[in-house]
Amino acid sequence: MTTVTSPLTGQAIGLGAVPDPVFSGAMVGPGTAVDPARESAVAVAPVGGIIVSLHPHAFVVVDAEGHGVLTHLGIDTVQLNGEGFELLAAKGDTVKRGDPVVRWDPAAVERAGKSPVSPVIALEATADSLTDVLEDGAITPGKALFNWT
């Protein structure tokens, strides 16, 4: 079993509340989402493993069991072309849970007309393989979002 923890400080809101039909409909995969605090933030690795994909607005860490976890910082933030995001790690890096990956400013994302809501997705998973999915309440980095069996 893999425990996926929050990459951000904020409020857990569940995928259904994500303002994007691809994420809210779990088309990318099951998981949950975090509405981040609006101060400048550092997104951390939600699992230990290898960063297999890294963009300013999104990253994927694959753990030792082969579970890929996508952290997507905001909605439609790819359109910002990296502005307001700073990479703190590199593709191919091995990270421990909680290691910093991207620094960003959720308030600046909001000022740019994008939602800072951040889905955390279990890639190539089925909804019934996730348990204890957190869909509401205050969250801090390292607090469990869901378990993946």
Automatic annotation (TrEMBL):
SUPFAM superfamilies: Duplicated hybrid motif. It is found in: Cytoplasm. GO terms for molecular function: kinase activity. It comes from the Bacteria. Residues 20-124 form the PTS EIIA type-1 domain. Its main location: cytoplasm. Pfam families: PTS_EIIA_1. Keywords: Kinase, Phosphotransferase system, Sugar transport, Transferase, Transport. One of its GO terms (cellular component) is cytoplasm. GO terms for biological process: phosphoenolpyruvate-dependent sugar phosphotransferase system. InterPro entries: Dup_hybrid_motif, PTS_EIIA_1_perm, PTS_EIIA_component. This is PTS glucose transporter subunit IIA. It comes from Streptomyces oceani. The lineage of its organism: Bacteria, Bacillati, Actinomycetota, Actinomycetes, Kitasatosporales.
